Amino acid sequence: MKIAFIGLGNMGAPMARNILAAGHELTVYNRTASKMEPLARLGAHTASTPRAAATGADVVCTCVSVPAALWAVAEGPDGLLAGMTAGQTLVDFSTVDPGTSQRLAEMCATRGIDVLDAPVSGGTAGAAEGTLTVVVGGAKEAFERVGPLMAAVGKNIVHVGGPGAGSTFKLINQILVGVNLAGVLEAFVLARKAGLDLNVLYDVLRTSAGNSNMLNYAVPDHVIGRDFDGGFVLKLLIKDLDLALQMGKDAHATLFLPAVARQLYEQANLLGLGDKNMTAAILAMEQLQGMS
Amino acid sequence: MKIAFIGLGNMGAPMARNILAAGHELTVYNRTASKMEPLARLGAHTASTPRAAATGADVVCTCVSVPAALWAVAEGPDGLLAGMTAGQTLVDFSTVDPGTSQRLAEMCATRGIDVLDAPVSGGTAGAAEGTLTVVVGGAKEAFERVGPLMAAVGKNIVHVGGPGAGSTFKLINQILVGVNLAGVLEAFVLARKAGLDLNVLYDVLRTSAGNSNMLNYAVPDHVIGRDFDGGFVLKLLIKDLDLALQMGKDAHATLFLPAVARQLYEQANLLGLGDKNMTAAILAMEQLQGMS
Amino acid sequence: MKIAFIGLGNMGAPMARNILAAGHELTVYNRTASKMEPLARLGAHTASTPRAAATGADVVCTCVSVPAALWAVAEGPDGLLAGMTAGQTLVDFSTVDPGTSQRLAEMCATRGIDVLDAPVSGGTAGAAEGTLTVVVGGAKEAFERVGPLMAAVGKNIVHVGGPGAGSTFKLINQILVGVNLAGVLEAFVLARKAGLDLNVLYDVLRTSAGNSNMLNYAVPDHVIGRDFDGGFVLKLLIKDLDLALQMGKDAHATLFLPAVARQLYEQANLLGLGDKNMTAAILAMEQLQGMS
Amino acid sequence: MKIAFIGLGNMGAPMARNILAAGHELTVYNRTASKMEPLARLGAHTASTPRAAATGADVVCTCVSVPAALWAVAEGPDGLLAGMTAGQTLVDFSTVDPGTSQRLAEMCATRGIDVLDAPVSGGTAGAAEGTLTVVVGGAKEAFERVGPLMAAVGKNIVHVGGPGAGSTFKLINQILVGVNLAGVLEAFVLARKAGLDLNVLYDVLRTSAGNSNMLNYAVPDHVIGRDFDGGFVLKLLIKDLDLALQMGKDAHATLFLPAVARQLYEQANLLGLGDKNMTAAILAMEQLQGMS
Q1: What DSSP character marks residue D212?
Q2: Contact C290 B284 (CB under 8 A)
Q3: A-chain residues within 8 Å CB-CB of C249?
Q4: C112-170 pLDDT, tens per residue?
Q5: Contact of D247 with D171, CB cutoff 8 Å
C-alpha cells in the first residue's frame, strides 16, 4: 500500500519506521523537517506539506499531540484534506476527544473519504516494537481495508464502533489510569506518613480487591524505586484528562473524580514535574504535605 | 485453644463456626442473643455478657461493625476488658481506624494483654469457606501464638507491622476499592451515554493500563449484568471510607479522591441503595444523570 | 456615533435598544432575522451578514453566547472582520475566556483595529434599564473613545487592564458566584435535613462571616420562596464555569472548587433544570438526597 | 447569678472576665491552672476540678476546643456532671457538632439539667469587647433564664431552635466561611498568575455578584496586604470543617465543596501554616503552584 504518515514525534517516528519495514511505500511529513531525515535514509519519501504527502496515498496517517495540531495539519490550503480525494482513507492515530474525531469524519464523509480514529496505547516501547494496542472507530469496511497497515504498527487491533468510538475507548482508559493512579499515590503518601513498610503493603495490595495495573506500574519502580524519568509523562496525562473532561461535557456525563484528579496532577505540573513520569505527581504530594 | 468470639454478624458467625470446626473450645457472645443459637447447637458455649465470654479464654476475638460497637463490647462493667487478665490475647477482626486499634492496644498493654488488629477481607463467601485474607498488626509473638486460630478462619494471613498496622493496611485497600470503583462507575455511565458497546469496552479495558480488580468485579456481573444484590454493600463501603478519612486526618495526609468518592457513594445511599451491592452507586449516577 | 450591533439575544436586544435610544445610528445583525424586526421598527438599519453590518461603522459590537459563536460571526467571507478596516473599534460584550479575547485582539491589532473585551453583568433587567456593569479590557484610548456607547448600556463601566482583562475579571466573578452559590445550596439542603427554621438561619447568616451576595440572592426568593424561573439560568452558569476552567488551564492555576461545583451544576442540568434559575441546582441536590 | 466557667482559652478567658465585670459571682476552672490567676486577681474563685467549679452554680459554662475536650471536662468522677443537680443550667460556648450537643442534652435531661449549645462568633476581639454573636439551641425558657449572662458576653444573642440547633447554625456558617474563602483564594492565585491588578479586581468584585464577607475579610489585609498573623487560625477552620463534615454525615447530607475545601486547607496546614490566619492557605496554593 501507498502510505502517507504525518507527525513524526516520539510515537509517530517508530510507527512510521515499522510501516516502512513492513514493505509499504511511505511518504512522510513533519513540521520540523529534520525529523524526516532518519526515515528518508531508510527509504521514505519526504513531503514539504501535509497536502503533498497525502496526495495519491491509499492511506493517510496522522499522529499528533492535540486536537489543534490535528486541525493544523488537516485544514487550510496546505492541509492534507486539500490533497485527498474520494476513495482514500484517513487514519488518525492521535489521542483526541471523540467530538474532534466525529467532526473530522463528517467533513470527510461528504467527500467520500473514510476516517478511522485509531488512538494507540503501549508507549514508545510498544511503538518501537510494533506491539501497540489500537482501538479503532469508523466504518468496519475501512477498518478491514487497512488491516495490513495496522498489523505493521500494533499487535492488539480492535474495531470498537463507529466514528469517535476509538477516541472514546482510549479516553475512558485514560480516565481509569488517571483516577486509579491518583488513588494509589494518595494512599502511598499516607502509608509513608503512617510509617508502613511499603514493600509489604504492596505485596498485600496486589493480591487484594484494591489491585490495579496502575498499582503494579507505579509502586515498585516509581513510588518505592524513586525513578521518575521516562515512560508516560505527566503533562500528557493532564492533556488526556482534559480531553476526557471535554468528552464528558459533550456527552453530558459528570466526571467528579477525573475533575479532581486533573487538579492534583496540575499541582505537580506547576511544580515543574510535567516532563517527568506521571507517577512523579507523588513528589508534589509529598512536598505539599511537608515530607521532602 | 479456648476461644471467645464476640460479634456474630454476617462475617463473625461463619468465622466462629470455622473456629469451632477446627476443634477449638468456643464461647460466643452476641447482643442479639438469638444469633448465638446456631452456634450453640454446634457445640459452642454461650455467654450473657462480653465479660463472661472473655473470662478464662486464651484468645478473645471481636468482630463488630464500627469503632463505637467495639468500645461498647470492650468497656464498662460487662465489657470484655473487665473479664481479661494478663497473658490473654485479644484479636479484633473488625475493620476500624488505626487510631482506635492503637488506643485499644495501649489500654491493654498496661495490663499485660496483647492486642492484634486483624481486619479481614474476602466477604461472606470467604468467611464461610475459611479462606479470608487477614492483615494483622501487633506484636510478632502474639501473632505467632494465634496461628492455629487464624488458620481456621483464613488462608492468606500476613503480619504487617505493629499495633494499628492491620487496620491501616485494610483501610488503604478500601481507599483503592472506593476510588477505583467510583472511577469505573463514572466511566461506564459516560460510556452508556456515548452509546458504546459495554462488552467490547470491558474486553478492551481489561487488557489495558486502566485495568483493576474493581473493573473485573464491577462490570460483568453488576454494571452489565445489572445484579445489585448481595456482596459487599454500599453502606459498608461508606463506613470504611469514613474510617479511612479519619485515618488520613490522624496521619495528616490529604485524601482528595476518597473524600469526593465518599460523597458520591453517599448520594447513592441517600437514594436508598445502602443495602445494595456497592456497585449500585451506578444506579444513583444514572438516575442523577437522567438515564433511568 | 455609527454603531453596528451583532447578536440580539436576551442581553443584546435590550442593549441595542438603549444604544438606539441614546441617539446613535445603529445597524443590527442577528442570525435569526426575525429578532431584528423590533429594532428595525425603532429605526435601526438591518444587515444580512455580520460583514455588512460592520462595514463603515465607528464601533462594531458583538454579544453572543460562547466563543464558537463569536468566531462564527467574526470569521469567514461574511464575517465582521471581512468588513472592518483600520481605525474601527470592536467591542465584544460576550462572556468568553480571556484566551479567546486575546486571540481576537491580536488578529485585529495587525490590521489597525482596536478590540475591547467588555463582558457585562446585571442580567436582563440591567440590560433593559441600561444599568449594566461592564468590565473592559484593551487599550485605554479605545476605552475612552467608546465612552458614549458604554454610557448608553451601563452604569458602572470600569477599564480593568489590557486585552483579555475584562474577560478574566468577569470569569473570576463567575467563579465566586458558582462556588459561593454551591456552598449555600449544599448548606441549606443540610439545614432542611436537620430540621432548622430556614428563615431564622438566613437572618443569622446574613449578619455573619458566611454572608455573601449569593446567600442574599439565593435564599429568600429561591431556596425558601421556591421560585426557580427566570434570572440567570443554570446552563449559562455551567458555560461560564467551563470558560473559567479553560482560563485556569491556560493560566496554569488549579481550580479545585470550581471544578467540583461545575460537576454539581451539571448533575442538575442533566435532570432537566438547565433553563431554570441557577439556584434550581438545589432541586437536584434535594432529589439526589431523597428529599423530594 | 452564680456562674461557673470552665475553659479559659483565647475565647474563654475574656468571656469569663466580662461575666465577672457584669457583677456575677464567678468560679473558674482550667486544666492549666496558671491561666486562672488573672481572673482570680480580678475576684473570681478558682476550682481544682470541673466538678468543684460546677457544684452549686446557677449556670455552668464551658468553652473548650473540641468535642473530646468537652467530654473530658464533663464526664468522670471529677467532671462537671458529677457536680450538677436538677435545676442547674449548662451553657456550652464551644463549637462542637450537633450530635455532641444533643447527646449532652439528653444525658442531662434525665437529670433535670437544661443544656444550651451556644457557640460564639466574633473572634478574640469580640470576646474581649463583649460583642460576640451567640446562636443558642435548647429550651426557650432556659435561654431566657440565662439572658443576663449572655448579655455580658455578647451583643447579638439569638435563640435558633432546640438542642443542637446552635451548633448546627454555627457549623453552617463555618461551611460558608470555608467554601467562600477557598473560592476567593483560588480565584486570587489565578488572578495573580494572569497578571491582574488585584486592587482593581477587588474593587470590582466587591460591587459584583461574587461579593462576600470572606472577600472583604481576606483580600485587602491578607491577600494583598500579605499579613497572615492573628485572627481566626487555619487549624481551627480545619477543625470546624471536620465537625461540619461529621454533621453532614449524621444528617445524611452530602457536602462536596466543604470536603474538597477541607483537603485544600489541610495541604496548607501540612506545610506548617496551621497557626497562621486562615487566609494563609493562599501561601500554600502559591507555593504548590510554583509562585513563591
Answers
A1: B
A2: no
A3: 242, 266
A4: 999 999 999 988 999 999 999 999 999 999 999 999 999 999 999 999 999 999 999 99
A5: yes
* D258/C186 touch (CB, cutoff 8 Å), yes or no: yes
Q: Is the Cα dihedral C228, C231, C234, C235 positive or negative?
A: positive
CA distance A178 to chain D (A): 18
Could you tell me how many residues make up chain D?
292
Q: Do residue B174 and residue B195 come from a single domain?
A: yes
Report whether A276 contacts A228 (CB < 8 A).
yes
Going by C-alpha positions, the residue among B52, B38, B41, B37 that lies closest to residue B6 is B52
**Statement to judge: residues B282 and B204 lie in one domain:** yes
State the complex-level ipTM: 0.94
Same domain, D49 and D153: yes
Identify the closest residue of chain C to D169 by CA–CA distance: C201
Answer yes or no: pTM beyond 0.90: yes
Q: Quick one: cell of B31?
A: 447482643
Give me the active site residues of A, please.
Answer: 170
**pLDDT value for A160:** 96
pLDDT (tens digit per residue) in A186-211: 999 999 999 999 999 999 999 999 99
Q: Does residue D221 sit in helix, strand or coil? A: helix
If you average pLDDT over residues C57-67, what whole number do you get? 96
Q: Kindly state whether residues A62 and A207 are assigned to the same domain.
A: no
Same domain, D152 and D20: yes
Non-local CB neighbours of D44 within 8 Å, separated by 6+ positions: D5, D16, D20, D26, D27, D28, D36
- Smallest Cβ–Cβ distance between B288 and the set C256, C260, C270 belongs to C270
Residue C239 neighbours by CB distance under 10 Å: 18
For an interface test with A, give the residue of B174, B211, B257 to mutate (most A CBs within 10 A).
Answer: B257
* Beta carbon pairs, A and D, within 8 Å: 25
Q: Do A251 and B194 lie within an 8 Å CB cutoff?
A: yes
Nearest partner of B191 among C147, D258, D170, A160, judged by Cα: A160
Number of domain units in chain C: 2
